[in-house]
């Protein structure tokens, strides 16, 4: 009797253990860290290249007494290219707004030539005057603020503005011929011109660190004034007022230190 009871008890225990082994096993779920959030904030460096064209291409010429010189001066459409480098810093406010500062310096080869041809009779004497004016831009730079909105997390639309400067070289050479005499006048000036710049653009993030951009800038610089003097005796013959404004469309590639 006792042996039968012990055997039955052992059989029940073995059945319970087998049933428990077949039950599904539940463990605590594995913990995962939050995915990093992409951000435009942080410093960056880059390169840019673009096309430039002069906004005002006709210089103004005045005679020795300060009166506008008679005769039309031709417009000369001018275009060039530029290539340079960029440094900047962005701050991101919330999910949609980005503000920052950017500086760039570019080599440029914007050249312009304008010509004057005039036939006049001052005091009844026939005078034939011709002249050529040259304007050359070797480099320019800007220091700007940027304020933008994110059309999508990877696409930044922005407005930009600040100060600008450029190295401008000017020269003029003219001849004046009458029945009794002829003269040659020359003048030149090289200087760094300062002004402002305004523009807009867009920048697209290719990855966490690389982005491409396209932008338009208008650069308004102070005018250049210089004298043209008689080559023979140095007497002032005329004065020239030339403009230095230009526009540029350029593309760039930026490397941002950060991205998350």
UniProtKB/TrEMBL annotation:
InterPro entries reported in the protein's UniProt record: Beta-barrel_OMP (IPR027385), OMP-like (IPR051692), OMP/PagP_B-barrel (IPR011250)
Domain Outer membrane protein beta-barrel: from-to ranges: 10-257
Keywords for this protein: Cell outer membrane, Membrane, Signal
Signal peptide start-end: 1-20
UniProt superkingdom: Bacteria
Residue spans crossing the bilayer: none
Primary localisation category: membrane
GO CC term (a single one): cell outer membrane
Subcellular location: Cell outer membrane
Family as reported in the entry's similarity comment: Belongs to the Omp25/RopB family.
PANTHER family: BLL7405 PROTEIN
Protein name in the entry: Outer membrane immunogenic protein
Species assigned in the record: Microvirga subterranea
